[in-house]
Specification:
This protein is an alpha+beta fold. Helix content is about 55%, strand content about 15%. β5 and β6 form a beta hairpin. α3 packs across α20 and α13 packs across α14. The radius of gyration is 41 Å and the shape is elongated. It starts with a helix and ends with a helix. This is Helix-turn-helix domain-containing protein.
């Protein structure tokens, strides 16, 4: 009996553990694939930048310093914005040149051989994974590289964007999962292995053959028992459709069944004791034996009920209690499943909207009683505007209110489901099509737009908030729901161009081919006014910059990319003017930029939070620099007053235009340059007349007056006496009167 219970329970536990492992692997695979896809999309956005194309088309890129500087800015922005990126390179194979934000323009030997070998095959896009030198099969150090081709506008061969991703991005995903005693591995087609470093159930010698078997398998899912080192291991493997990586969990079979083994042994010992007790009871205690048999019959009849009149326990009572506990646990499990059904249903809808389709999803959709009878599906995604600053409680209340409004409006016209997604958006899945009970037009466009407009208007009138709604295209079949959801989310991104509080239909927004011209002229005007610390002009130019982008661009990513480049150029200008300057912002500007969903919000943020600290800092530095510059000039005058000094000469001394020097000199001293020179030299003349016997003609020559009469005339104008009269008064002790 114990062996049978053990075999039955262990088989079911293995199945349940296998299903739990598959779900864990799917979550890990999805999160890692999302990181890789996000990196690929951001790399593609920068690959279409005309600055990079011009750099790759230049016959002599080292001579075009302006284009080279803008190229470095783009690469530096990528290296800063994209999370977990170690390095970004721009590679010109025809010139054997590599551009790096850290090293500038260097020889191609800075790239590893395996990267150059991959580029030699002229790929459009390729992922490379390379294990760094180590004797261990599961070492922690790897290099993941994305190579993206950039086509040029002329006959010049294409170039390549090369992005190195830090593998710690994967380990953060591992650490978020509750793996317990399981070991998690990622096996790539090239044979490299990423380990979670928590446990090692396989030795390195066993790993190599075992993991090679997993990598060579074409199966999308694997669940089997493997023998390794005298222990049985339960292995789950799931292959990614995106890059062919195998996600593997390994757990000891004996660890899984450890508690069952104890139950088996305990039951076996108990059965032996029962047999022995029964033999004794047969010969000695017939009445006790009768009561034990009666208790067993009563247990079978009442499924664990206690027989009347029982006052003493025997061995069968323990067996009955054991089965009673199993029955109670089963009831509790059924109750937990019933209570968790809404959450399980919402999680499945989330997977249906965001994960690749699997054939078993239809069966699960029927199990959760989802509306799937009509042929077409359309997804709407709703974003609550201007929730920044609201409490968590208020945001939840608004979201639940909008969910109820959406359910009410959709329910009057079609079958649908509404959930709150993990990313904070509200998603509505509408099932419609050829059905006599459906009031929704099969063509859908106008009706879907009207449903969305009704949701937007009711939310605004009842809740006094605005919502933005993105609508994906209508598709047939469950396998296209994810596509419609992605399109709805992409439609929401066009808030950057269209603004918030509106309905955005992807079919009306997404262009077939996007053309984009970055407003470099306005950028340079902003940089110029930044150097002049002119905030008023900067605010006006930011409005012109945003308007130029909305006029030129057809794709929402170009808007965000343009603002990111403007911020990068402004920060670089700040660094050039003040290399050792303090940190002016207490948060990452690029992260905040990605949080803002309209160009109006971005412009307001730039006007109120980004540029005022920079302008204030540069203005303060400008005042300090002006004072320091003029003090340097005055020190030079005081030391060389007896030489020929001119305003252009001193302006050149401080590397400043003459007109600007003249303006700053008068602002700092209150006198023009010529007036200051006359006043200082006359003061020197007065000191020489008081303290020396130098002839007046020699004093005039010393102070660079070619004509002594001019010197006498200027001295008399300044002091009211000629130099001779002044010296005579000094000798008679009348200096005080003269000075008064």
């Amino acid at each position: 009996m114990g062996t049978a219970a053990y075999l039955t329970a262990s088989g079911k536990i293995i199945e349940e553990i296998g299903e739990a492992n598959r779900q864990t692997l799917q979550q890990i695979q999805q999160r890692i694939d999302e990181k890789l896809i996000t990196l690929e999309n951001m790399t593609l956005q920068n690959a279409v930048n005309p600055t990079l194309s011009r750099f790759l088309s230049a016959s002599d890129p080292q001579q075009d310093t302006e284009n080279f500087g803008m190229t470095l800015t783009i690469l530096n922005a990528m290296q800063v914005i994209i999370e977990d990126v170690d390095a970004v390179y721009l590679y010109r194979p025809d010139k054997k040149l590599v551009v790096s934000p850290n090293s500038g323009m260097v020889d191609e030997t800075v790239l590893p051989d395996y990267v150059r070998q991959a580029v030699s095959t002229h790929p459009t896009k390729v992922w490379l994974d390379h294990k760094l030198e180590s004797v261990l099969i599961r070492d922690d150090f790897h290099q993941i590289t994305l190579v993206r081709r950039i086509n040029t506008s002329n006959e010049t061969p294409p170039g390549y964007l090369i992005v190195n991703l830090n593998d710690t991005a994967f380990f953060r995903v591992f650490s978020d999962m509750q793996l317990g005693a399981r070991e998690l591995l990622i096996v790539t087609p090239s044979g490299n292995v990423f380990s979670d470093r928590r446990s090692s159930l396989l030795s390195d010698e066993e790993s190599e053959a075992f993991l090679r078997k997993v990598a060579d398998s074409d199966a999308e899912k694997q669940l089997r028992i493997e023998n390794a080192g005298g222990d049985s291991l339960a292995v789950n493997a799931l292959k990614s459709n995106y890059n062919g990586w195998n996600y593997v969990t390994v757990i000891s079979y004996s660890e899984l069944t450890r508690h069952l083994q104890k139950i088996k042994q305990t039951t076996f010992i108990l059965c032996l004791a029962l047999i022995l007790t029964s033999i004794i009871a047969t010969g000695v205690l017939s009445k006790r034996w009768y009561r034990a048999i009666h208790s067993l019959v009563d247990l079978i009849r009442h499924r664990g009920g206690v027989a009347e009149g029982r006052t003493h326990k025997n061995e069968f009572v323990y067996i009955r209690n054991y089965f009673e506990s199993l029955h109670q646990n089963n009831q509790q499990l059924e109750k937990q499943i019933e209570d968790s059904m809404p959450l399980l249903r919402a999680n499945f809808i989330q997977k249906l909207l965001t994960e690749p389709y699997h054939p078993d999803m239809r069966e699960r959709a029927e199990y959760y009683n989802l509306p799937i009878n009509r042929p077409k599906f359309t997804v709407m995604c709703i974003d609550l505007d201007n929730m920044r600053g609201q409490t968590e409680r208020d945001v939840n209340l608004f979201q639940y209110a909008v969910i109820n409004i959406t359910k009410e409006i959709i329910g009057g016209q079609a079958k649908g489901l509404v959930i709150r997604m993990h990313n904070g958006h509200i998603a509505a899945l509408i099932n419609h099509g050829e059905d006599e009970r459906s009031t929704l037009d099969p063509k859908l466009s106008a009706n879907l737009f009207q449903i969305a407009e009704d949701i937007r208007k009711v939310a605004e009138s009842l809740l006094h908030i605005t919502v933005t709604i993105g609508i994906g295209r209508s598709y047939e079949g469950l396998d296209r729901i994810r596509v419609s959801c992605l399109e709805a989310l992409e439609a929401l991104e066009y808030q950057l161009i269209e603004g918030s509080g509106c309905v955005l239909f992807i079919e009306q927004l997404k262009p077939d081919a996007a053309s984009f011209s970055y407003p470099y002229e306005i950028e340079q005007q902003i940089v110029t006014n930044l150097k002049l610390a002119n905030m008023v002009n900067i605010e006006a130019l930011l409005d012109d910059f945003a308007q130029a982008i909305r006029t030129e661009t057809l794709h929402h990513e170009h808007v965000r990319q343009s603002f990111a480049q403007l911020i990068a150029v402004s920060l670089r200008t700040l660094f050039e003017l003040h290399p050792s300057g303090a940190q002016l912002h207490d948060y990452n500007l690029y992260y905040r930029l990605n949080e803002l969903n309209t160009s109006a919000k971005i412009v307001n943020w730039l006007k109120t939070e980004v540029y005022p600290p920079i302008v204030g800092h540069l203005s303060s530095r400008m005042v300090q620099r002006t004072h320091s510059t003029i003090q340097k000039v005055l020190q030079h005058i005081h030391q060389h007053y007896d030489t020929d000094l001119s305003q252009p000469q001193l302006a050149a001394l401080v590397s400043m235009p003459v007109s600007q020097f003249s303006h700053l000199f008068k602002g700092e001293t209150g006198m023009t340059f010529s007036d200051y020179m006359i006043a200082f030299r006359m003061e020197k003349a007065r000191q020489l007349l008081e303290t020396t016997d130098v002839k007046i003609v020699d004093i005039a020559e010393m102070l660079r007056y070619n004509n002594s009469q001019n010197f006498i005339r200027v001295f008399k104008k300044m002091h009211g006496l000629t130099p001779g009269e002044y010296r005579l008064r000094c000798t008679k002790g009348q200096l005080t009167v003269v000075q008064q």
